[in-house]
Structure formats: structure tokens, C-alpha cells
Amino acid sequence: MSEKFLVIDHLKISYTGLFNAAELYNLISSWFFGKGWDWHEKVNMERITPDGKQIHQIFWPWKSVSNFYKIIMHIRVNMIDVKDVEVEKDGKKIRVNQGEVHITIDGYVLADRNDYWTDKPFTWWFTVMAQKYFFKSHYQKIETWIKGDVEDLNSRIKRYLNMFRYSYQA
Prior knowledge:
By secondary structure, the chain is of the alpha+beta class. Helix content is 35%, strand content 46%.
């Protein structure tokens, strides 16, 4: 069984105000495709309530960075009480969404991504010793990689949501 190391634990983004749900989804997915990540959308659920739409999305993007390591993100997007509103900008009416957005990001490093070295006790022990004593710097580079990618995605999402805060008046 492969070992999964938690590197980033529950990095949270919260926002209340105007945004465009479709553009937010496209921002996240295009960021991953632009960086060469693969993508699995586990949940994409929308529930309509009297207060507005409740949108729940779970993404599992991953990237194989070597023959042994894989980096994985777990992203949960919850949009609460999402309503369609019209905003006037430069004399034109634009349709946007209004509500709450809560995003949680976890970052993992998966060792032995193909389960090749952990199926027998001796190979498992050999792998643990090699990781601990010989390939520690390699693991630290992979850990730095996932931290940098999580921080880049986090800042991109925050900039996008902040742009809406200062661009439109409700």
C-alpha cells in the first residue's frame, strides 16, 4: 500500500459577495490543465433551495512527478445561497452570482505511486530506509513543489474573488 503524506492541511478560502461560479470553476480547472495536472471531479452537485443554490464540488487533481512520487490535491468547493443578480458596469448589465464561497485545499505527496515497492515486507522495509536516509532531499523537493502549487492556486483564486469585490457594485 502506498504511503500518503499530508503536506498542506485544510488551507481555507472564504468569500462573501459577487462572483461568477462558472468562471471560478474554469479558473481552477484551467490552472490545473495549464500546469500539466490530471483531474478527477469526484462530486459536482447543485441543490436548489428557497434561499438560493447550494453548489458542492470535490476535485482530486494529481501529477506524477517521478516514477516513485505523485503529488495530489484534494479541493472542496462549497457555494452557499448562490443567487443570480444583474450588475451594471459601464452602462451594460452583466449577470453574476451572489453568495458565499468556501474552498478548502489539502496537499499530499504519495510515495510508491504504483504500489511496486510495498507489496512484500522486505521491499517495504527497503523503501522506508531508502526514503529516510538516501532520498530525503528528493522528497523535500517534491514537498516544496506541492507547497508552491497550492500557494499559487490559492493566490490565483483569492485574486479572482478580490477582483469581483472591487470591480462591481451591487
